[in-house]
Amino acid sequence: MTTRRLARTLWPLLVIILLALGYRLLIMADRAAAPPDVAAWDPMPGGTDQKTYLEHLQALQAGDYPPTRFRYQPGFVYFLGLVSALTGSSDLLSLRLFLVSLASINCGLMAGITWLATGRRGAGLAAGLLLAFYPVSAFYDTDFVITSQALVLATLMTGATWLAWRRRRQLLWPALTGLTFGAGAVTRFELIAPGVVSAGWLLWFKGLRRAWRQIVTLTLTALLLIAPVALHNRRGGASYLITPAGPQEMYRGNNRDTDGLRSPSNASATTHDGYLHWLLQDIALEPGRFAELMLRKLAFFLSSQEAGNNLNFSLSGQAVSPWLARNSLNFTLLLVLTLAGLVMLWRAGQRPLALLLACGALAYLLMVLLLWVESRLKTPVIAWMLPAAGFAIDRGLVTLRQGSLPAALLRNRRALVALVALLLLIEAGVRELPRDVTLAELPADATPANLIYDETLELVGWQVREQYSSRHSIRPFHPWVVSLYWRLLHKTGIDYSFSLKYFIDDQAVIAYDRPLGYVVYPRDFSSKWQVGPVYVEHVGLSYKRYDGPLERTGRIVLVVYPQRDFEAGFDPFSAAGEKQSRPVLAQPAILLPPGRNEVPVAGEEIAFGEALYLLGVDLPARAAPGKRVAVRSAWRSGAQQIDAPYAIGVFLYRDGEFISNVDSPPAHGALQTFSLLPGYRFDDEKWLDPPHQPGQYDVYLAVYDQRDLVRLPVAGAVDNLHFIGSMEVA
Question: How far apart are CA 97 and CA 323, in angstroms?
C-alpha cells in the first residue's frame, strides 16, 4: 500500500477518533463542574462500584492485592494498575483521560473493522461516528465501571473473529480472539457467551479440519488469562472459578418480587445463600409471572430507556451535561438501523458477517437477561450492532442519492409494518409487564381466613410455602415465605398496609411491614385494586443471626392498618360481623438443623411412638430430701413432621407407688414439639422435687399428647412409662 493510499485510509479514522475524544472531553468538563455527589465525579460516592475498584487499585499499588479469594472480577483492577504504571499517575483525571483516549481510539477501530468486513468505506465511517456520538457509551467512557472496557473488548473480539475467518492460515487473529475472550471472562462476565459464539462461528464456516488449529489457539490464549484467577481462587479455598457474584446477581434480577432491574426486593433481602435453588422455587411458585418478567426484561433491553445503578446515565450524565441531554441518538434508533442492516447484509450475500453480528448480539443479550437490565450491562452489545447499523446508513444514502428510496420502502412495506409492530410491543412490554398476580378464588390447599377489615378489605386466606422452609421452623438466614390472599369488597381510596411480626413471648423478633401491593412488582397499592379478584403477595421473612432465642416456639401475627399508621390497626371481623382475634399464621421456632445434644448419648434409642426417640439420660444417683435436682435427657424427633403438642414427663415411684411428677413441653414449656423439624436433636431438662422421706426411688419418662393426655407407646414399658434409673434420697 502506497503512503498516499495509507493516508487516505487512515485520515478518516483519525478524524473520527478526534471527534470522539472532543465529545468525551466536553462531557468530562460538564461533569467536573457539577456537584461531585450528583456527577459521581471526585470524590467518588461511598458504596459505589467505581469507589470499590479505585480502592482495589490502591491496594494493588500498596501490595495488599489480590485478596485470598476474588469477590470482584479482577481484570479491571489490573488494567487500572497497568494504566497507572503507563501514565505514572493514579490521579483520577489522568486515569480518566487515558480511558477516554482508549475509548476514542476504539471508535476509529470500529470504523476500520466495519469498513474491512463490509467492504464499504461509508459503512465503516457511519459505524465509527455512531459509536463516537452514542451518548450512553460516551458517558460510561468517562468513568470506572468496566462498561467502556467491555465495549473495547467486544469490538476487538468481533474484528479478530472476522479476520480469523478471512486470514485462514494466520494464528494471530484467533489468538487475539482468545485474549479478548479471557479478558472478558475476568473483567465483564457477559462477554463469555459471545466468545463461545465466535468460536462456534469459526467452526461452522471453516469446518473442524481447517479450523482446529485456530480453535486450539483461541482456547489456549483464553486460558492464559482465566487460569491464574481460577487457580488463585482455588488456593484460597473458593468453590468458584472467578467470582461468587453470579448466582446472587441472577437471583436479584429474576426472583419472585423483582422488576427485572437492579432494585431492592423483599425476596433478595430475605435470601442469603443457595440462590439458584431459591430461584427455581420462585419460578415454580409463579411460572406465569416469571415468563412475563423475562418478556419485560427483553423489552426493556430493546427499548430506549436507560436504567441506572450507582452510576446513572440520566442522573449523572444527562442531568449535568447538555452535550448528553441534547443528543437524540438512542438505543431504539440503533436497533432499527441494526435490524435493517442485518437484512441488507443478508440480501447482499454477506451472510457470514450477518450471522456473526446477529449471534454475537443475541448471545450477549441472553447473558444480560440472566441478570438484570441496566445501561451499564447492555451498552457493550452495540459492538455487534454498529457494523450492521453503519451498513444500513451507507446503503440508505446510496438509495437516497439514486432516488429509489420510495420504491425501496414500498418493496419492504411488510418489513416496515413488522418493525413498527415490534416497537409497539417493546413499549407495551416495558409498560404493562409483569401484570398483577391475581386469582379467581382461594387455592384449595391454602388456609381459609375470611377476615374482613374496615368493612372493605378481606383476608381470604394464607399459605405457608414449605418449599422454602417448614411452617414449623425458621432457619437463620433462610427465607420463610407465606402467601397472603387479599380481596376488596368495595372500591377504596385507602392504601392499606400490613405487618407480619414474629413474637417469642411478647418480644417481636422479626418484623416486616409494608403497604399492600408493595411486596411484588408491579407495585399497585390497594387504592388501585379492582373489586372481586384475589390479589396474591408472597412475603418472605428471615432471621439474620445465629444466636438469640433458639428452640423457643413463637407465633407469626398479621396486623392490618390504614396507610402507614400502624397505631390505628384494624380488628378483623367475620362475614357475620363477629369480632375475631388477629390471625396467627404459624407457630414456628428458630432452629439450627440438625440440632445438637449436650447430654451424653447412649447406644440404644428408645422410641416413643414414631414421634420422639430418647437418646440418653443424665440422672443424678443421689439427691438431698426436698432439694430440687435436674433430670436431663437427649432426644431426636422422628422422620415425619410432628403435628401434635407433646409434653415430656418425669415420674417418681417408690415400691410401685406413684410419688410425684413434673411435665411440660421441651425447654420448660418454651418449645412445642410441633415446631421441631424431622430428625432434629435437642436436650430437655426437668426439675424434680425429691420427697423429704429418704429412700430408693424409681424414675420414669413418658411422652403424652397435651390435648387428650394419651401417652405415646414405648416397647416393653408398663403404662408406657419408660424406666430410666433409680435415685437415692438421703
Answer: 18
Cβ–Cβ < 8 Å for 660, 668? no
**Distance between CA atoms of 4 and 442, rounded to whole angstroms?**
79
Per-residue pLDDT, 219:
94
C-alpha pair distances (Å), 642 with each of 165, 175, 708: 67, 63, 16
Q: Which residues 6+ apart lie within 8 Å of 173 measured at CB?
A: 160, 161, 163, 164, 167, 214
Q: What is the CATH number of domain 606-729?
A: 2.70.50.60
Q: Which residue has the cell 465511517?
A: 125
Do 150 and 188 form a contact (C-beta atoms < 8 A)? Answer: yes
- The DSSP call for residue 467 is T
* Pair 546, 527: CB distance under 8 Å: no
Strand partners, 681: 595, 636
The three-class DSSP label of residue 627 is coil
**pLDDT (mean) for 347-365:** 97
Least confident of 206-210, 355-359, 370-374, 574-578: 206-210
How many C-beta neighbours within 10 Å does residue 81 have? 16
Domain 448-590 classified CATH 3.40.50.1970? no
**Cα separation, 507 vs 92, whole angstroms:** 51
Residues spanned by CATH 2.70.50.60 within the chain?
Answer: 448-590, 606-729
258: nearest Cα among 224, 227, 283, 232:
283
| Cβ within 8 Å of residue 682, ≥6 positions away | 551, 595, 596, 597, 634, 635, 636, 637, 666, 667, 671, 676
Q: What is the pLDDT of residue 386?
A: 98
Q: Which residues pair with 631 in a beta bridge?
A: 686
Burial of 45 (0-12, 13-18, 19+ CB in 10 A): middle
pTM over 0.70: yes
Q: At 314, is the pLDDT very low, low, confident or very high (cuts 50, 70, 90)?
A: very high
First to last CA, the chain: 113
